[in-house]
Amino acid sequence: MQPNILLITVDQMRGDCLHYLGHPVIQTPNLDNLARNGATYTNAYTATPSCIPARAAIMTGMKQENHGRVGYQDKVPWNYEHTIAGEFAAAGYHTQCVGKMHVYPTRNLCGFHNVVLHDGYMHYNRDRSKTSPLSWWDQCDDYVNWLRERAGSNVDIMDNGLDCNASTVARPWHLDESLHPTNWAVTQSIDFLRRRDPSKPFFLWTSFVRPHPPLDPPQAFLDLYDGIELPQPPIGDWADQSDSSRSGLNPTTGRGIVHERMRQKALAAYYALITHIDHQIGRLLNALFEYGVQNNTIILFTSDHGELMGDHLLYKKILPYEGSAKVPFILNDPTGTLGLKSGKLVDDVIELQDIMPTLLHAAAVPIPGSVDGMSVIPLAQPEANTAKWRAYIHGEHSFGELSSHYLTDGKRKYIWFSQTGEEQLFDLERDPQELRNIAGIEQHGELLELWRGRLISELNGREEGYSDGSRLIVGQTPVNVLSHLISSDLH
Fold first, then answer.
1. Phi, psi at residue 257, to the nearest 5°?
2. Could you give the count of Cα atoms lying within 13 Å of 58 in the half-sphere of its Cβ?
3. Who's near 455: CB < 8 A, 6+ residues apart?
4. Which pLDDT band, with edges at 50, 70 and 90, does 55 fall under?
5. Average pLDDT for 216-230
6. Rg, C-alpha atoms of the chain
7. pLDDT digits (tens, 9 = 90+) for 291-319
8. Which residues are CB-neighbours of 124 under 8 A, at least 6 positions away?
9. Mean pLDDT lowest among 25-34, 246-255, 330-339, 476-485
10. Cα 425 to Cα 407: distance, rounded to the nearest angstrom
């Protein structure tokens, strides 16, 4: 039988938040062990650092210019011909997603046989001015209904007073730990192992909502980090440190000077959520053993994007800096059939579009021609040949005046802000925290020209008019969704 495939994703976890990669504080024992016995990709990025476009890359294996989502926009239908779940289902796999999908319509299966859904707090579904008090959202979210069956019909995910996007306010989870969304995702994943068709291999996507805010870890995990010395955020020489509008006083801020005790508490809670997830992953791994599938289940762990968490006085995601755009990426193969070198650190630059072809390759399932990504399996083999691997990735995100594009090969990063024309260039080998913008330094002029030329080529022909093939054009109107996706939804 073909191997089982377990895709584990988290929401908003930074790429540096693994003890295995040298983080000075965080505890991730189960992920460390998966990495120790598998391969870790140290230059893994999300091309579009927010939930919806990042998940489009995971589900379709496409570049953002092809899947069409280049910014954050809800309520755009998902009608892709080829999805990762659809391809596995067509190949005879029993498929299930547990947790966050963030697609539209909300209960769209996107090729899965079944989805047990919890997207977290969805603003467009939670607008009670447009729905009845017992809204359709309340009825369609599986976690909320499960929670109310156990904790009371009036319980809601907003009861702890934390905003769903707050990066600066934290408090412990207010109910029993077993009722936390992280535990629920594993409980439901284990239940799938009980209910699955044993005559078929399975593709299970366990999709955690945390460590995305609210920052609400169970008390035991918060205690691991609360009150100890935590890393100070990097502040680049280019960062705006004035905060004249006092944006840091907004608990859902994207930038600003936040009260230091509040920042420390938020960081402690963020780390605690990650360790909580790690422990629950350990619970899921134990269930694989108990159901007799541990040795025949290939595991891929990653995140949809990161979290700036105060880097350069910035919060949340979307922007192209390392804290936001870089993600963890671990491939573990207990079957031994992929030929991975145990413990290998792969520094070739990869992206979320590579997940679909990697997992299809692992299962010997044909990869559709619509897929832009490539399997990362050969990069982790003992005699890896990277001659045909990509030279760099292109990322972007529409975000008003801060709309940006970036290119990186994991060693250098070039950023262009399309509305202002500002350029940044970072030497990530010497300056991994992006403290020094070298774009304006004369001795790096040739390097700047090289990377600018690459972006000119990448954007040539794009509908927004960012490039005419010879120069970048500043001030063109950014869009969140490219027209070919919208037009395809009309037919």
1. -95, 110
2. 32
3. 394, 405, 407, 414, 416, 467, 472
4. very high
5. 96
6. 22
7. 999 999 999 999 999 999 999 999 999 99
8. 74, 75
9. 246-255
10. 10
Residue 14 is predicted with a pLDDT of 98
Which alpha helices (DSSP H) does 167-302 contain, by range? 181-195, 219-225, 260-290
CB 14 within 8 A of CB 306: yes
CA dist 488 and 466 (Å) reads 23
Per-residue pLDDT of 450-474, as tens digits, reads 999 999 999 999 999 999 999 999 9
Hey, which residues are catalytic here? Answer: 51, 102
Residue with tokens 């169970």: 218
- Residue 202: CB partners within 8 Å, gap ≥ 6? 4, 5, 93, 94, 95, 96, 192, 196, 293
- CB neighbours of 394 closer than 8 A, spacing ≥ 6? 47, 63, 405, 406, 407, 455, 458
- Residues 330 and 31: their CA atoms lie apart, in Å, by 8
Tell the residue number behind the tokens 């010879």, with chain if given. Answer: 470
Q: Confirm if 423 and 223 have CB atoms less than 8 A apart.
A: no
Q: Do domains 4-386 and 398-485 have the same CATH topology?
A: no
**Exposed e or buried b for every residue in 341-367, given b needs 16+ CB within 10 A?**
eeebebebbbbbbbbbbbbbbbbebeb
Class at the top of the CATH hierarchy for domain 4-386:
alpha beta
Give the pLDDT score at 491. 44
Residue 201's alpha-carbon distances to 58, 92, 195, 221, in angstroms, are 20, 8, 13, 35
DSSP letter at 487? H
CA atoms within 13 A on the CB side of 262: 15
User: Hey, where are the domains in the chain?
Assistant: 4-386, 398-485
- The H-assigned helical ranges of 118-230 are 123-126, 136-140, 142-151, 181-195, 219-225
Q: How many CB atoms lie within 10 A of CB 246?
A: 10
Q: What is the pLDDT of residues 161-207, one digit of tens each?
A: 888 887 789 999 999 999 999 999 999 999 999 999 999 999 999 99
Q: Which residue has the tokens 């004035």?
A: 242
Arithmetic mean of pLDDT over the chain = 94
Pick one of 3.30.60, 3.30.230, 3.30.450, 3.30.1120 as the CATH number of 398-485. 3.30.1120
